[in-house]
Design a protein that fits this description.
This protein has 15 helices and seven strands. It is an alpha+beta fold and 354 residues long. A hairpin with a 2-residue loop joins strand 6 and strand 7. The model has no long low-confidence stretch (mean pLDDT 91).
Length: 354
């Protein structure tokens, strides 16, 4: 699957296709894995770079095409919802920052093929955040507070989250430092292909890289993380490498306690996602192997949703909490090796939130 993923992500022919042709069962496994990792659209694009005689059967192709249609439709719906919300907030002078999601999708060659999640927004002040919640309540939404302090609700069927922090770092001193970095930043803007007239505020290039990196770390040491998030990081490095100072990025990672984690992440991006090493923001001695992170990625798929023990606990609140706790325990050796401070403080914040 990684061969197709790299071909589709970077729009290039795979260097090695010696593993092809695949049997029907092997193609089914590729499809299921891509689905669990939420990279169906990217891997489907990779098929265009294979010789036709190596394609899967027509039945699987038709199923794949149907899924791609749903991904593109979901993206368009999500983009429309985002524009509506920004216009609604803009009417009263609110200008939230878009985190990850559709903002990162604009860094892809084909944004609509990236499987989208929810809409993540951050408001620069508590007063603005409260005003935004008041507005959506007035439109019939019912925001619910999560243990991490964020609020989530649905807008036209799309899940929306308002986050208390732009950068999700939990170590107490680091969190205060990160807030100062955010306060000093000058936001960037992007536009969606279907709405070129609407400028959307996003984090500055430097803060965006730190944000995406920290987000991946948070999930890797917790419930799990998938290939879509890795593709986001790779595309961000590719798109922003001329806009950032590499040593500044390295300094930020070090101050955030993410330098060793980043060396592992960078090795993963180069070895498994196909990012060219010169596009990394700075030169450093990468981890010898990214296999520890690959195990995390393959164990549970997108945000750990396909872990072997996940399905049986989804119906019970306390079982879900217990499952979350066990996930941190299971990952403790990994977490304390690559991001010890974040692991300790993330567990503490989750416990406090309960």
């Amino acid at each position: 699957m990684l061969t197709l993923l790299q071909a589709g992500l970077w729009e290039r022919r795979p260097q090695d296709i010696s593993m092809f042709p695949l049997s029907e069962a092997e193609w089914q496994s590729v499809f299921i894995l891509a689905q669990q990792q939420t990279v169906l659209g990217i891997t489907y694009r990779g098929l265009d770079y294979l010789p036709e005689h190596l394609f899967p059967s027509g039945d699987l192709i038709f199923r794949w095409v149907a899924e791609i249609g749903l991904i593109e439709e979901r993206n368009l719906e999500s983009n429309q919802s985002l524009i509506e919300l920004l216009e609604l907030f803009g009417q009263v002078g609110l200008r939230p920052i878009l985190q990850k999601g559709q903002g990162v999708a604009t860094m892809y060659d084909r944004p609509l093929l990236r499987s989208c999640g929810d809409i993540d927004l951050w408001f620069p002040s508590h007063k603005e955040a409260e005003k935004a919640l008041e507005i959506v309540r007035g439109k019939g939404c019912t925001p619910e507070k999560a243990p991490d302090g964020s609020f989530h609700y649905h807008w036209r069927g799309i899940e929306v989250e308002h986050h208390p922090d732009l950068i999700d770092l939990q170590a107490i001193g680091v969190k205060r430092w990160a807030r100062k970095q955010v306060k000093a930043m000058q936001p960037a803007t992007v536009t969606l292909p279907e709405h070129p007239e609407r400028a959307i505020q996003t984090p500055s290039a430097t803060i965006n890289l730190l944000l995406i990196n920290a987000h991946i770390c948070k999930h890797a040491i917790g419930l799990g993380v998938g290939l879509r998030q890795m593709c986001d990081m790779a595309r961000a490095y590719h798109a922003l490498h001329r806009e950032v100072d590499g040593e500044q990025i390295r300094s930020l990672y070090r101050r955030a306690g993410l330098e060793r984690w980043s060396n592992l992440l960078h090795r993963f991006l180069v070895d498994y996602i196909g990012l060219e090493e010169h596009l990394l923001p700075y030169r450093s001695k990468l981890e010898e192997s990214a296999r520890p992170l690959l195990k995390v990625v393959l164990r549970g798929g997108n945000f750990g949703r396909y872990a072997a023990d996940r399905e049986v606990v989804m119906g019970n609140l306390w079982q879900r909490k217990w499952h979350t706790a066990l996930s941190f325990v299971r990952n403790c050796r990994f977490s304390f090796r690559y991001a010890p401070a974040e692991a300790i403080w993330t567990v503490w914040q989750l416990a406090k939130g309960q």
